[in-house]
Design a protein that fits this description.
The protein is of the alpha/beta class and about 250 residues long. It contains 9 helices and 10 strands.
């Protein structure tokens, strides 16, 4: 009887220990967080997530350096628990709790350097316009597009390569990711320019923290939501998430 009792206690303690550890699925994202080959990730978003874990009462662990699309699959399957810097979509909300924590930056329309300036959305209608596959664009931006020839590119890097070689005329890109891709590829330096024409949203859009519905229980979700709100109230989201000067490669 005592043996059965001890086994039950051990199972309970193991379950509690497991429940208090959550894995953040992430990749190398310059200016937000860096993931060196031989050490743990570091940077402002890492500091933000460590503070969140302290306030919400869980131990944070890190996935290997994992591409963004694969991280989405890991959360869908419950293999990882957390993701940061997400745009909202109904498809993602089916398998993640999505908690807003910051305002999203507006996507940027890029052209080749020296291309004729675009002054209206109508001027885009006959262009070959690149859009990144899998990226969740602002719905109000997509409604403005009457482009006949939208070209879906498999990655932002390929999109800029196609823009450079003239296979597309313009590209709508996530703001920070575009800077990262251009900075990391020498042949892209000084080859592109943000168009004069840019989208100005009527309403703010937000960046979300994603929690896997398969691995994060409602009680954990509530603790994380409360902790996240306390960080917003204390001004720590702005301190960590916008303090990109602190990130060193």
């Amino acid at each position: 009887m005592m043996k059965v009792f001890l086994l039950c206690c051990f199972s309970l303690f193991s379950a509690l220990a497991s429940a208090s550890t959550l894995e953040w699925c992430l990749d190398h994202f310059p200016h937000r967080h860096f993931y060196p080959d031989n050490s743990e990730p570091h940077g402002p978003t890492v500091d933000l997530m460590q503070e969140l874990s302290k306030r919400a009462g869980f131990t944070i662990t890190y996935s290997t350096n994992t591409p963004f699309p694969r991280c989405l699959q890991h959360l869908k399957q419950g293999k990882s628990d957390l993701m940061t810097s997400l745009n909202y979509s109904a498809a993602r909300a089916e398998f993640m709790y999505l908690l807003p924590y910051d305002k999203a930056r507006v996507e940027v329309l890029y052209q080749r350097k020296g291309a004729p300036p675009l002054n209206s959305w109508a001027e885009l209608s006959n262009q070959q316009l690149g859009l990144v596959r899998g990226y969740v664009y602002n719905a109000a931006l997509l409604e403005k597009l009457t482009v006949k020839h939208q070209v879906e590119v498999s990655s932002l890097d390929i999109g800029f390569a196609m823009l450079l070689t003239g296979r597309i005329d313009s590209l709508i890109a996530p703001a920070q990711q575009a800077i990262n891709v251009i900075d990391s590829n020498p042949r892209y330096k000084s080859q592109f320019q943000p168009a004069v024409l840019q989208f100005q949203p009527a309403e703010d859009r937000f960046v979300y923290l994603g929690l896997s519905k398969k691995s994060v229980n409602p009680e954990q979700k509530q603790r994380i939501e409360t902790a996240l709100q306390s960080m917003l109230d204390d001004g720590l989201i702005d301190h960590f998430h916008h303090n990109i000067q602190r990130a060193k490669d």
